[in-house]
Specification:
Length: about 230
């Protein structure tokens, strides 16, 4: 498992591989999924994930007490997703220097915080048709299919890096991409979120359409399973 600084450097050098484009909003959602996954698995805690204190540091730098994420604050200062993406790395580098000077340790290595911890039963893919659908703002900040996509990417990357095998819901979700391509008759190499967004008015409508499509996809899989059993 790479440490957070290494991952961020890779994203900075080639954001397309991880988050499709240089976007601070995409980066924020991706990191939320990545860090939350490591916390759930017991590889780090909120207080030692490498980002602790950055929110407050950015607020102080911007001289604001507005209830907004670090990504939102930087974006408001820069005016564009790309400029804010680039600005983030400048700010985070200064933040790390301050942390190093105060000897605040960043997340390193692959050892678990507690060797006797079991992999938790929480699975974000199980949450999609239930909790995320009911309370998207709690998971995503606002209704956005792109934010959901990035959250899931970060979550899955962290699990792969520490060698956690995909759960059954995660494996089932892997087929959603090809199903969406078939549904819309598209073979463009675009992600499922981009395809759905293309056929929607905005991010909010695309997210609602995603939940409808995902429910259809799950029901279709259940029907296929019944047919296999009966056949």
């Amino acid at each position: 498992m790479m440490n957070l600084s290494t991952l961020l450097q890779k994203i900075k050098e080639n954001p397309v591989i991880y988050i499709d484009k240089p976007s601070i909003t995409c980066l924020h959602s991706f990191l939320n999924g990545y860090i939350d996954s490591l916390i759930e698995l017991g590889f780090t805690t909120i207080g030692s994930c490498g980002m602790e204190g950055f929110q407050e540091w950015i607020q102080e730098r911007a001289k604001t007490n507005v209830s907004r994420s670090w990504a939102g604050i930087i974006l408001s200062c820069c005016g564009s997703e790309r400029a804010a993406f680039n600005r983030f790395f400048e700010e985070f580098e200064q933040f790390l220097k301050q942390k190093n000077n105060s000897k605040i340790q960043e997340i390193e290595g692959i050892s678990r915080l507690s060797e006797d911890m079991r992999f938790p039963r929480f699975d974000i893919y199980n949450e999609i048709p239930s909790n995320i659908k009911k309370r998207p703002g709690m998971f995503l900040g606002r209704n956005s299919i792109t934010r959901l996509d990035m959250l899931l990417r970060g979550y899955s990357l962290a699990r792969r890096e520490v060698g956690v095998p995909p759960t059954e819901p995660e494996r089932e979700f892997e087929g959603f991409q090809s199903w969406v391509e078939e549904k819309y008759g598209i073979k463009s190499g675009q992600s499922w979120s981009k395809i759905i967004l293309f056929y929607s008015v905005d991010e909010h409508e695309a997210l609602q359409k995603f939940f409808e499509l995902f429910e259809e996809y799950l029901n279709r899989n259940k029907s296929l399973e019944v047919d296999e059993i009966c056949g």
